[in-house]
Records
---
Amino acid sequence: QVQLVESGGGLVQPGGSLRLSCAASGSIFAINAMGWYRQAPGKQRELVAEITSGGSTNYADSVKGRFTISRDNARNTVDLQMNSLKPEDTAVYYCNAVRSVRGVRIDYWGQGTQVTVSS
């Protein structure tokens, strides 16, 4: 099993920055990719950014140039640096880990951390 714990959320003013961190434990050797999703009230969960075990990254168009996903192998963490935050970035952010076995995708999720962008 894979356990994911997020941290770093909070309240920030528009234009400010936050850094989210996701700590992974358990069968981390089996993870093929990790990423961040977010879900605003009444809306569907959407992909924000992801990074594969090979280091390839992918970002939602709405966050390109503002957010950066990175990994720290020594600490078994995946971070999301969020700059130039906008009110529309307000959501619960979830860490995601993906394990693929014989073409079957298995997703693991953290508990979520609230990010609120408001003046």
---
Amino acid sequence: QVQLVESGGGLVQPGGSLRLSCVASGFTFRFYAMGWYRQAPGKQRELVAHITPGGTTNYPDSVKGRFTISRDNAKNTVYLQMNSLKPEDTAVYYCNAGGLANGYWGQGTQVAVAS
């Protein structure tokens, strides 16, 4: 069965960095677009990074230049490198395979940016 297992969240100071990982199983990873989403209390879920099977990436303006998504098909893993973190980046971050509506989701990992 499909499974997405996330790791790497935690507490970090403003300006710091974290790298999130998502290990996938149960489907042909290399054929799927992958994404990272986040949701903070009182806010809508939002896409923060997207990568196609061919490696094309997209980011919203809120994270562009600070976050980088990458994938390692040999490891069935997608990463999110987060640099220059801000308090407003605080949220639960979710790994997604195959899209918002019909895709698969990880369990989420908490990222907190605070002094």
---
Amino acid sequence: QVQVVESGGGLVQPGGSLRLSCAASGITFKFSAMGWYRQAPGKQRELVATINSGSSTKYGDFVKGRFTISRDGAENTINLQMNNLKLEDTAVYYCYARSIFMSTNTWGQGTQVTVSS
């Protein structure tokens, strides 16, 4: 099975920065796409950012210009650099990974991001 593990969540002041990482592993994993969604209490899950095998990126309108998604050389780890964080960015951030051998996404457990003054 494909394993997806997030890290880097925590507490940060408004206007601060945080960097999330997500690693996908497994002998069946071959990078197709990875990305981040987030969900706050009482809200629907929403797109944060995605990156595909061609390094094309997509961002949710509410984070574009503040967040940057990237991948490492091994192409099984992605990073989400979050700058100028706002109170409304508080949510559980979930990473997904899609293998070229699979038709569905594999999701991580999520990491809590809390923005509070």
